[in-house]
Design brief:
Elements: H1 2-21, E1 26-31, E2 42-45, E3 51-53, E4 59-61, E5 70-75, E6 78-84, E7 92-95, H2 128-134, H3 139-146
């Protein structure tokens, strides 16, 4: 009976050790600036024969990729990033957001598109630096914070 208990302990220990080697390689793709997960990142090899897309939590499984294979990460709002599967550290990949700027946005009470010079009423300007600092959720929140417009 004691021999059976000893053998069972060794079998459990062996299974535990094997399970640590057979773990799936799951990764998380994160925004480099905010460290938040990125949804919908296309991950593929150079020949595009193997691919996967990140889920709602930025997670993806790279088991179908070979260890020495180059893995490409592509998303519309981020710079494309390539790395070999074996070089991925701590199961995290960080993508750099693309710089996308807007020249000027005119918010008007009119139903029609108007340029700034065609509006006969008072105009307020809000700098992009102020918008970034305030981080408003809507344009109404932005205009309210400017202090010169009443929003109902």
């Amino acid at each position: 009976m004691t021999c059976l208990v000893k053998n069972t302990k060794y079998i459990v220990l062996a299974l535990f050790c094997l399970s640590s080697f057979v773990q799936a390689q799951n990764i998380v793709v994160l925004n480099k600036n905010t460290k938040e997960p990125i949804v919908g990142v296309a991950i593929f090899n150079t020949s595009k024969s193997t691919s996967v897309v990140t889920d709602f939590y930025g997670k993806a499984n790279l088991d179908n990729f070979k260890s020495a294979e180059t893995v490409n990460f592509k998303h519309l709002s981020y710079n494309t990033f390539s790395i070999t599967k074996s070089a991925i550290k701590k199961a995290r990949v960080f993508l750099q957001p693309k710089a996308q700027g807007l020249d000027e946005i005119v918010i008007s009470g009119s139903k029609f598109k108007e340029s700034k010079r065609d509006i006969p009423k008072k105009i307020i300007s809000v700098r992009s630096k102020d918008i970034t600092f305030q981080n408003p959720q809507t344009s109404a929140d932005l205009l309210t914070a400017a202090g010169q417009v009443y929003i109902q």
